[in-house]
Fold each of these.
Amino acid sequence: QVQLVESGGGQVQAEGSLTLSCAISNHGFSAYVLGWFRQAPGQERKFVAAIDFTGTKTMYADSVKGRFTISRDNTKNTVFLQMDSLKFEDTALYYCAADTFLWREEWAPRPQSYGSWGRGTQVTVSS
């Protein structure tokens, strides 16, 4: 059973920065595609960013491109989401997700591609 635990959320002013972390408790961490998704109240869960198992392939939602950076440390079984120039509309509950599917850009943004999820960490951006 894969367990994912997010941390690093909080409240920040617009244009500020936060770094989210997701620790994954599984010895097969290096084989996982890892993703970040977010869900605002009353909205569906949306893709934010994903990274392949090598850490060399990444993709981002258009709304965060150029502001957010996803990375992973396979020695620490952790994936990160560096968020800069935060906007009010970035306010949401952020989830990390993991699975071992073969990296394809049409699959990485889909929530249904991931079988393991954390419980989320809240990010609140005040304008």
Amino acid sequence: VQLQASGGGLVQAGGSARLSCAVSGRTFSGYTMGWFRQAPGKERDFVASINWTGGAYAYYADFVKGRFTISRDNAKNTVYLQMNSLKPEDTGVYYCAAAPVEGEMLVKMVSLYTIWGQGTLVTVSS
């Protein structure tokens, strides 16, 4: 089972970036795929999530609503995070993860995610 995140880098404030999370090794039916970020010296925060199968239900942290969009391509086994209007405070290591839960309250709980990919660093310069 593997989640492979990519797409990070240095971006100017106001710019955009798209992160990808390649999913392999097992079926994730009934799972939720999430993106989290961790700034230096801070806890890992929920950013966005989407269920892997069925109708696409997406949830977002308040601090990214209207700027970030999560999507999935099941044929390519990939989850994306499109990030627009980036701010310096969006800087951090972004992780993709999978949780065997659904529902808005549960998918925002970091502790329920059981499978994690390596992070990808996003740096937003002012």
Amino acid sequence: QVQLVESGGGLVQAGGSLRLSCAASGRTFGRSAIGWFRQAPGKERDFVVSISWGGGSTYYADSVKGRFTVSRDNAKNTVYLQMNSLKPEDTAVYYCAARSSSYGGTYIRANEYDYWGQGTQVTVSS
């Protein structure tokens, strides 16, 4: 079992930065792949980035590549999402998710994840 809590969202101007955190509890966090997804009003939940359990592999959506950076600190049971050069189209609720049986890989589909956080709102003004 893994419990996830996101934080760090807020309101920022276009071009600004935010760092989201995903704090986890549970014994299997260190062996879990973590994904970030986002959902804008009236739209489907979209994949943002995935990081493998050891942090050695990452996979980014094209829309955020070069602007967002994911990292994890397994000693702190936390995954971070550094978001730079934010755009109004990045506005969404951001969710982190954990896949407990990860085998060192990254995963891009929401249904591949077992546990979800409640989400944190990110709003980018133009």
